[in-house]
UniProtKB/TrEMBL annotation:
Native source organism of the sequence: Aphis gossypii
GO molecular function: tRNA (adenine(58)-N1)-methyltransferase activity
Keyword list, A-Z: Methyltransferase, Nucleus, S-adenosyl-L-methionine, Transferase, tRNA processing
Gene3D superfamilies the UniProt entry points to: 3.10.330.20, Vaccinia Virus protein VP39
Record-linked InterPro entries: SAM-dependent_MTases_sf, TRM61_C, tRNA_MeTrfase_Gcd14
Record localization: Nucleus
Protein name: tRNA (adenine(58)-N(1))-methyltransferase
tRNA (adenine(58)-N(1))-methyltransferase catalytic subunit TRM61 C-terminal domain span: 72-209
One GO term of the biological process aspect: tRNA methylation
Catalyzed reactions per annotation: an adenosine in mRNA + S-adenosyl-L-methionine = an N(1)-methyladenosine in mRNA + S-adenosyl-L-homocysteine + H(+)
Length: 256
């Protein structure tokens, strides 16, 4: 299955969103058999507050179907980036759809855009950006945590996004971005505790065109916001960038 191309029928191996209510949605893998803690192969049965669901019963059903639980019912939905954000396994704090929409608007993303992102985290934003820039765009995303980077890459592949997303384990604060993105990016997004350390590397990643020289570098902060805001504004003005995005939807445009 793919986040890029819609399909009608659920098959084994697909990611499916089980919708019970707005407060109860689950991303499940459509696998008929799983391995238990003892290493034994057993039938895959999901337990919900409305009873059990045999995953094998989903095969052949159209996405959007109403399915019976042992004590109720639910719907099985095709996964979208917005639904994935609501149901993904949290490895870090994530960015939700309202902020994702603002970020992609500020980055001026469109089909064909090349984006550099750090850090990947749980991949919430990455999924939305990858679908936005398809079919010819690409997201280069970095995370310093090896396990997070590996798990994110597995999810991108399982969701049919590996052609549009490259995930790497790299400490960009210390080492910058990989050489293969130098001069390629239309936009850079930094979701890091100390993004000002990465701004010089972000400049190198941007395309050396007049338009890209004024490309947006967006940054998101979780702590030390006031002090780091001062630092990042100085960097943006020094490098002739025009927009900054921070905590609590703080944003400001600069005429440089």
């Amino acid at each position: 299955m793919s986040f890029n191309r819609y399909k009608d029928i659920i098959e084994e191996g697909d990611t499916v969103i089980l919708y019970i209510s707005p407060q109860a949605m689950y991303a499940i893998q459509a696998q008929s058999v799983i391995e238990n803690r003892k290493g034994e192969k057993v039938e895959n049965v999901m337990q919900t507050k409305y009873g059990a669901l045999k995953i094998s019963s989903l095969f052949g059903k159209p996405f959007g179907s109403k399915v019976s639980l042992s004590n109720g019912w639910a719907h099985v939905l095709y996964p979208t980036p917005e639904l994935w954000t609501q149901t993904l396994p949290h490895r870090t704090q994530i960015i939700y759809t309202p902020d994702i929409s603002l970020i992609m608007f500020m980055l001026e993303l469109k089909p064909g855009s090349i984006v550099v992102e750090s850090g990947t985290g749980s991949g919430s934003l990455t999924h939305s950006m990858a679908v936005r820039v398809k079919p010819t765009g690409h997201i280069y995303t970095y995370d310093f945590h090896e396990q997070r980077a590996d798990q994110a890459q597995k999810e991108f592949k399982a969701h049919g996004l590996s052609e549009n997303v490259t995930s790497q384990c790299r400490d960009v604060c210390q080492n910058g971005f990989s050489d293969d993105v130098t001069g390629k990016a239309d936009a850079v997004f930094l979701d890091l505790p100390h993004p000002h350390l990465v701004v010089p590397f972000a400049i190198k990643a941007l395309k050396p065109s007049e338009h890209a020289r004024h490309a947006i570098v967006c940054t998101l902060y979780t702590d030390h916001f006031i002090d780091e805001t001062t630092v990042i504004v100085v960097f943006l003005r020094q490098y002739h960038l025009i927009s900054y995005f921070g905590a609590d939807h703080f944003s400001e445009n600069f005429n440089v």
